[in-house]
Amino acid sequence: MHRLSALFLAPALLAAAGCATTQGPERAERMGALMGRTELSLVRELGVPDATAEAEGRRILRWSSATLEVVPEPYPWGPFGPWGYGYGRGGYAYGYGAGWAAPRTYRRWCDMELEFERAEDAPEAPWRAVSWRTRGNDCR
Questions:
Q1: Is this model's pTM higher than 0.70 or not?
Q2: CA-based, 20 to 30 A from 82: which of 3, 37, 71, 98?
Q3: What is the pLDDT of residues 78-118, one digit of tens each?
Q4: Do 104 and 9 contact (CB within 8 A), yes or no?
Q5: Residue ranges per domain, the chain?
Q6: Element (H, E) at 44
Q7: Cα 57 to Cα 74: distance, rounded to the nearest angstrom
Q8: Nearest to 139 by CA among 103, 114, 112
């Protein structure tokens, strides 16, 4: 019986292990694939940028994202308060610190900038991506 279950379980475990180790392309590879593409095609793919700037024959487009994650804190002394009081009439907790704690908030953000330039001999040529940079704690 154990051999039979091991026979059926082994392929499932191998498949799960293969999925766990397979990762998507690294950020450098993903961003490198965007280089050389036109501004119009990247705006169509990534959406409208949050900011643009143009100076000295270069154009920079920036996409920004930010989220707040609220993580509740555990009770400082548990649900019974510091003196071991339980819940009173109506289900309300009583006792100092019984059941309240301020939640923690974490700001997750990422700014991605793509820099574009045109060929100097063709001022009507489309803008093409030449470099990129990211800032933030949530850039993937």
A1: no
A2: 71
A3: 555 555 445 555 445 554 444 456 678 889 999 999 999 99
A4: no
A5: 2-136
A6: helix 39-46
A7: 55
A8: 112
Number of alpha helices (DSSP H) and beta strands (DSSP E) in the chain: 3, 4
104-117: strand order across its sheet = 51-55, 58-71, 104-117, 128-136
pLDDT at 23: 56
**Cβ–Cβ contacts within 10 Å for residue 139, how many?**
15
Lowest mean pLDDT among 42-46, 109-113, 117-121: 117-121
Tokens of 125: 């040529």
Separation CA 21–CA 10 (nearest Å): 17
The closest of 135, 137, 16 to 69, measured between CA atoms, is: 137
Give 108's contacts (C-beta < 8 A, 6+ positions apart). Answer: 66, 67, 68, 69, 136, 137, 138
**In which band, very low, low, confident or very high, does the pLDDT at 139 lie, cut at 50, 70 and 90?**
confident
Contact 100, 81 (CB under 8 A): no
62, 30, 28, 31: which is closest to 47 by C-alpha?
62
